[in-house]
Amino acid sequence: MVARTSNVTGEMKLPGLNVQVLDYRWDVDESISECEDDFILRYRPHPGQVSVAAHMKGGKVQDYGPLMFFPAHTQTETTPAKMSERTRNVMCRFTDDWFQRVWIDRHDWTAADLERCYNMHNFRIEHAMQRLSAEVTSPGFGSDLMVESLANLVAVEIARYFRDRCSPKRIRTYEGQFSARELTNIYDYIDSAINRCPTTEEISRECGISSAHLRRSFKKTTGLTLHEYVARTRLSKAQTILAETDLPLKEVAYRLGFTSSSTFSSTFRKDSGETPSGYRQRLRKGN
């Protein structure tokens, strides 16, 4: 069975490329089997987790992450869904010819490559997919050019993700401090995290340095611990959402990567000195 599309909220077709924002659904105990002629990248902004896992070419079963890549002509099969699923995806579909021009020479997809497909970690791709979603759902001046540019960026980042697996680029610090560019990359990665709070291990993997080196150099460069900066960033995001939307606390907690609204409320109160509801009410009264 192939995943069923229940709704398409945006779509743009260009030569060799199709970008869609769509909702998938499958019911409890249903499984998905796919083998496409195109290269497909899927980004799932909602929900943060799904109840199915999958494998390619008889490889080991792995959980789906928010960012998933499916090479052309590769069989994918999922485990039966543990519950009825409704997921939103931003999907880039690249034809074989379009995508292969980025790789220059045909890539040999190893078992190690395929194991990295289901849960990619690349904030640049995630950010580009977010922008693609905005462009195809609310097109504006030059949207076709913007979509084509973003798709090229995504394809190059995918190629780098797999080509650099054996020799990742590493950040070098000067006298134990990050350069302005390297620090900006760390900030951008933390700020771009959606529906989760990035861990030290995730950030260190993105930067290509050890967790200990990351923590030590970040503190020496900024005067803050990495944990303090991540907490401040998440508090700032929470305050913005509370101030600008009427979303229930459960949804706000989900968007920020908290496991529950109660955990979010207690963390917010600890960091800000007031509850999320109290903060929202105070702002509304002030306005």
Q: Which keywords apply here?
A:
4-stranded antiparallel β-sheet; Jelly Rolls; Arc Repressor Mutant, subunit A; 287 residues; alpha+beta; globular; single chain
Structure explained in plain terms:
By secondary structure, the protein is an alpha+beta fold. It has three domains: 4-163, Sandwich (Jelly Rolls); 180-223; 228-286, Arc Repressor Mutant, subunit A (Orthogonal Bundle). It is 46% helix and 19% strand. The protein has helices at 96-103, 111-115, 123-137, 143-163, 180-192, 200-207, 211-222, 226-244, 249-255, 261-272, 276-286; strands at residues 4-14, 17-26, 33-34, 39-46, 53-56, 62-63, 67-70, 76-78, 85-94. The strands form two sheets. Strands 1-2-9-4-7 form a five-stranded antiparallel beta sheet. Helix 3 (123-137) runs antiparallel to helix 4 (143-163). The longest helix is centred in the middle third of the chain and has 21 residues, at 143-163. The mean pLDDT is 82.
In short:
The protein is of the alpha+beta class and 287 residues long. It has eleven helices and nine strands. It folds into three domains: 160 residues, Jelly Rolls (Sandwich), CATH 2.60.120; 44 residues; 59 residues, Homeodomain-like (Arc Repressor Mutant, subunit A, Orthogonal Bundle).
Q: How are the SSEs ordered, and which strands pair?
A:
Layout: E1 4-14, E2 17-26, E3 33-34, E4 39-46, E5 53-56, E6 62-63, E7 67-70, E8 76-78, E9 85-94, H1 96-103, H2 111-115, H3 123-137, H4 143-163, H5 180-192, H6 200-207, H7 211-222, H8 226-244, H9 249-255, H10 261-272, H11 276-286
Antiparallel strand pairs: 1-2, 2-9, 3-8, 4-7, 4-9, 5-6, 5-8
Helix pairs in contact: 3-4, 8-11, 9-10
